[in-house]
Amino acid sequence: MTTPLPFPEAEPPSDAAREAGRLLFAAPTDFLKGVVAMDGLPPGDRVEVCFAGRSNVGKSSLINALTGRKGLARASNTPGRTQEINFFTTTGGPYLVDLPGYGFANAPVKVVEKWQRLLKAYLSGRATLRRAFVLIDSRHGVKAVDEEIMALLDKSAVTFQAVLTKSDKVKENDRAKVLAQVRGALSKHPAAFPELVVTSSEKGWGIDTLRAIIATLE
Question: Which PANTHER family match (predicted)?
């Protein structure tokens, strides 16, 4: 009998969950507002999920792939370009929340510190936040800055799920090594959800699975 791997890849969704995800994201998703301070947050009148990741991990591309709208979340080649917490409304579903990129940012230190304070305040104080998706670049695995956000999520008791991005950029023989490193890192974090989602925004890999997860959160 084989021992199951810790943090296995999420199973393909059931037909019902897949359809729920398809319907949620077939309906319009719209930009609501960008928030620069906690008092600017929209009312906590629905469930929300957030997307966190270091600069240039592919957050905007993933949100665009999920929603099927290429220009919804603005991708940038400049690290740290997203300086706000951006809220998007789904039709009859949760808020999608795009958090500022963390780690290296092409901005003054004081500006970066302000982003980090806002990020910590949001993660610690948002009662309607059901899950954080922590995006990890499949080419690099978990970095020190990812560990910092995971530790913050542990402290805030916010369940987070690792989403590997850009998986089409990784050679097959390097994939197992990266997955092993990610699993080892996640095993140290009590708030980590026990399944990974492996995605490629470019190829569409894992997008149906992630849509289904979001659509079925309560």
Answer: ENGB-TYPE G DOMAIN-CONTAINING PROTEIN (PTHR11649:SF13), MSS1/TRME-RELATED GTP-BINDING PROTEIN (PTHR11649)
Helix boundaries (H) for 34-108: 59-67
**What is the domain partition of the chain in residue ranges?**
15-215
Banded model confidence at residue 100, pLDDT cuts 50, 70, 90: confident
Q: What is the pLDDT of residues 183-192, one digit of tens each?
A: 999 999 999 9
What's the token pair of residue 11? 């199973």
Beta-sheet strands, E only, within 26-138: 29-35, 48-53, 85-90, 95-98, 129-137
d(CA 142, CA 18): 29
Coil vs helix vs strand at 67: helix
Q: Measured between alpha carbons, how far is 195 from 13 in angstroms, rounded to an integer?
A: 13
Side by side, which strands form the sheet with 29-35? 29-35, 85-90, 95-98, 48-53, 129-137, 160-165, 197-198
- Report the predicted TM-score, pTM, of the whole model to 2 decimal places: 0.92
